[in-house]
Automatic annotation (TrEMBL):
SUPFAM superfamilies: Winged helix' DNA-binding domain. Gene3D superfamilies: Winged helix-like DNA-binding domain superfamily/Winged helix DNA-binding domain. This is Helix-turn-helix transcriptional regulator. Transmembrane segments: none annotated. CDD domains: HTH_ARSR. It comes from the Bacteria. InterPro entries: ArsR-like_HTH, WH-like_DNA-bd_sf, WH_DNA-bd_sf.
Length: 212
């Protein structure tokens, strides 16, 4: 199966509305999700949720692990529960195929080699400040719409997903600096973005500024 065929197969799996809801719930969760919790979140039976969750695993969209939720071990502790989390990797579809990722890598390499980090950060911050949705709406929803998958960790707003993951893996200092500047621009004066990586997610976290 070609890369394009594989991407189309993923689209086919996600054509089912229930599977999309289950995928979004698991992908946005800060930790692993069990069948009971997933079923309750989308309002279906455990068996129906299990069927669709396993279809998402078969498509490579979710990954699985097993653990005992009670924390007990040994005889009488029960069978380990099947737990789901977002799978690593990316799936993109373009018809006809495009190579924006290749262009992004070339541009990042040129910027890094030319030492234009500060110029990139200034442009990213300005783009965030000029974003009309950020100025008019709820920052959490703005971040969710941009693919960051925000979630609350106590008083800290963490970001489960990095929209620039592939480039950040190859050019971490450049892309993470750009991302921080973009989020500083998007955030209102009430928020303080800072480098505070979420395991498996974004390098930036946000906290509310002290108004006193």
């Amino acid at each position: 199966m070609t890369g394009e065929d594989s991407a189309f197969a993923v689209l086919g799996v996600l054509s089912d509305p229930l599977r999309r809801r289950l995928y979004r719930h698991v992908a946005a969760a800060p930790g692993e999700v069990g069948r009971d919790a997933a079923a309750e979140a989308v309002g279906v039976s455990r068996s129906l949720a299990a069927f669709h969750l396993d279809k998402l695993v078969e498509a490579g969209l979710l990954a699985v692990s097993f653990r005992r939720l009670s924390g007990r071990t040994g005889p009488g502790s029960g069978r380990p529960a099947k737990m789901y989390r977002r799978a690593e990797g990316e799936h993109t579809v373009s018809v006809p195929p495009r190579s924006y990722d290749a262009a992004g890598r070339l541009l990042a390499e040129v910027v890094e080699n030319a030492g234009l980090d500060q110029a990139l950060q200034s442009a990213a911050r300005a783009a965030g400040e000029a974003d009309p949705d950020a100025a008019a709406g709820d920052l959490v929803e703005v971040l969710r719409a941009r693919g960051y998958q925000p979630f609350w960790d106590g008083e800290t707003l963490r970001l489960r997903n990095c929209p620039f993951h592939a480039l950040a893996e190859e050019f971490p200092a450049l892309i993470c600096g750009m991302n921080l500047a973009l989020l500083q621009g998007l955030a209102s004066g009430q928020w303080a973005p800072a480098m505070d990586p979420c395991p498996g997610g974004c390098c930036v976290a946000l906290s509310k500024k002290n108004s006193h």
